[in-house]
Amino acid sequence: MSAVSVYCERLAPGLLGEPLNTLTNLAFLCAAFHGWRQAGKHHDQRLLAALLGAIGVGSALFHAFATPLTQLFDVIPIALFQLCYLGLYLRRVTRCTPAACAACLLLYVVMLTIASQWSAPLNGSLAYSPAAVALLLLGIVHWRMRARADVLGAALLFLLSLAARSVDLMLCPHWPPGTHFIWHLLNAAMLSLLLAAYRRACNRQTLNR
Known about the structure:
Layout: H1 19-23, H2 26-39, H3 43-65, H4 68-93, H5 98-115, H6 129-144, H7 150-166, H8 180-207
Helix pairs in contact: 2-3, 2-8, 3-4, 3-8, 4-5, 5-6, 6-7, 7-8
């Protein structure tokens, strides 16, 4: 399979072609491990933690081998996490009806499909614009429910990480390692915040019953 080279750090073909981009995926695995331990026996929270771990593994494989196949291992867990988190949050936290939840998820899939067509501008970061919008909306809802502002904090981290992803190729002449590894580190922190926000919201819903 031909190599897929879309990041500044790609030094050469092979396993160590993107050392920083590969190794920083350990941050996802650490966040997933912490989320799994905090989930206890809650299967929905364990699912989200497992998907977070899959994001780290898939991304590491892609940056290590950079083939079309490993690119699928990278993007599929990300998409699954987005859909599962949104669906679970709407059902468990906001108490949306199944029909309303399904409609929101369908709308989100349509938005993702449209955004994925914009692969050139900003190094493909426009493909993540639906996630940024959804996070901001969830953050506002979360805050208005008199919960902590951690979802809004996660949205801010995501915007910062998108900026790092977007300027990666632009900075190649001045900073050869690029900035994609910053995207990994900020996203790991952001996803860890989201898991904690969901866990606390579910616990609060249980106490209020």
